[in-house]
Amino acid sequence: GAVVSQHPSRVICKSGTSVKIECRSLDFQATTMFWYRQFPKKSLMLMATSNEGSKATYEQGVEKDKFLINHASLTLSTLTVTSAHPEDSSFYICSARDMVEVQETQYFGPGTRLLVL
Amino acid sequence: QKEVEQNSGPLSVPEGAIASLNCTYSDRGSQSFFWYRQYSGKSPELIMFIYSNGDKEDGRFTAQLNKASQYVSLLIRDSQPSDSATYLCAVRGSSASKIIFGSGTRLSIRP
What we know:
Chain A is mainly beta and 117 residues long.
């Protein structure tokens, strides 16, 4: 299957700082990427859909000014958690859609574990 | 009604037996169906996809799709302890914009 990478894999930051997470599709181009967060033992929660060259589409209840998404190229999307607070500590996972495949499978990155102190 | 429904489990199956995971969806126009496996603390990984009615086999895994009943299932033959994980059913609806995930079924294979 296709490969999606995320960086960093884990990050610890102080409250009030910003953290940027990168998501790359390594062997395919992705016009659409998705950002999820997941709390321990809970379901995946879709935060936003990232569209190359245009604004992201945020799910209800997700603050777009707090979770900045940029999809500058067909292989890279970034999520910036601004002014992070302890309640933002979570597992953030990106997913990229391979539009070449008939079924347009979504492949997941390995995730980024964020801890805000 | 949730768009994609799964029994949360846990589903406990003895080693070597067949594990059967079920999923129902609400959008009758749904096009593609996916099964992902997620180990604790890891991100989901794709097991297989199906988009035609019937069965699709890949090694020990068989996906079954019945669009009339809006039902998709995953069978795992010769279950191994390493199959213990949460299994996510995902459906691409008629709008085709994004995949909707079920909340997952936790599977435990007991030795």
